[in-house]
UniProtKB/TrEMBL annotation:
Region ranges (Disordered): 60-89
Domain annotation PHD-type: ranges: 2-53
UniProt domain RING-type: residue ranges: 5-51
UniProt protein name: (apollo) hypothetical protein
InterPro entries: Zinc_finger_PHD-type_CS, Znf_PHD, Znf_PHD-finger, Znf_RING
Keyword DNA-binding: no
UniProt source species: Parnassius apollo
Lineage: Eukaryota, Metazoa, Ecdysozoa, Arthropoda, Hexapoda
Keyword Coiled coil belongs to the record: yes
Coiled-coil zones: 131-165
GO molecular function: zinc ion binding
Keyword annotations of the record: Coiled coil, Metal-binding, Zinc, Zinc-finger
Top-level taxonomic group: Eukaryota
Amino acid sequence: MGGRCEACRANINVTQKRIKCTQCSHNYHSECINFNNDTASRSEWKCPACTASYRKGDNSNTPIRTNKSPSNTVYDKTTYRSSNKSTDQPTCITETSSCQPYNLELINSIELLLDKKLSAIKFDIIQELKLSLITEIKNEITNNLKQLEESHNSLLNDYNNLKSNFEKTSTKCPEWRDETGGIMCANKKKTTMG
């Protein structure tokens, strides 16, 4: 929520255009005070209440009202002189279709419904992502284990081959010694005779 509009007293949604008074810091719907970007600078804008309380100068032509008791008060329409007020100050407009109370109730109920639905959708998406991530990780681990097992089996086969070759070589070693010993003796005899 973006606060409460001081003109229509309704909540200001984050998606609605709004403006903040530079003097009192109250928020207003841009529609409620007829503000658009062409009207005035946001950094200098003052709300209608602050603008009304600000003295504009000499007020000697303002009519004087007499104090009347509340029981016999008669409201008469008094016309004031027009001031040379610039047109860049927005005026308060209280009747805008987007700020009517029955529309606000409908908007608020729709907003709550949408929030609930979006939360449910978000939850479902998160659950699907978790499940797919878990499945992906599980498949990756399974593939890595298969590769590791294949590598282990290959190394085990190589080890067994080396072991059997070593055993064969070890059993033939005495025979080779005899053969090499005989050759060496024959070579010695040849060298000593010759």
